[in-house]
Design a protein that fits this description.
mainly beta; 47% strand; 4-stranded antiparallel sheet; single chain; 6-stranded mixed sheet
Length: 116
């Protein structure tokens, strides 16, 4: 059974930083592209960034470019999202999943709240 467990969220002031982690199990992690997604209240879940299986290729949506960095450690079956210069509009529940996503493998996510 594929499982993703997110951690590292919290309350941070505008301009602050957070590092999210995603622990994956139940699949050959290094062979799969992975993604970070987020869902703000009232909005649909959206892709934020994705990374190739080997970690060489990355993609970011425009609104996080230059602020967020996606990375992975295949030896630990773990993916990360380093977030800097956080804005109130980054407030959301952040999820990880394969890219493209596995529909029935969504975890609980980790809440990120950016507020003064």
């Amino acid at each position: 059974q594929v499982r993703f467990v997110e951690s590292g969220g919290g309350l941070v002031q505008p301009g602050g930083s957070l590092r999210l982690s995603c622990a994956a199990s139940g699949m050959p992690f290094s062979l799969n592209h992975m993604g970070w997604y987020r869902q703000a209240p009232g909005n649909q879940r959206e892709l934020v960034a994705r990374i190739s299986g080997g970690g060489v290729s990355t993609y970011y949506v425009d609104f996080v470019k230059g602020r967020f960095t996606i990375s992975r450690d295949n030896a630990k079956n773990t993916m990360y999202l380093q977030m800097h210069s956080l804005k109130p509009e980054d407030t959301a529940v952040y999820y990880c999943n394969r890219y493209p996503d596995i529909a029935d493998a969504w975890g609980q996510g980790t809440q990120v709240t950016v507020s003064s």
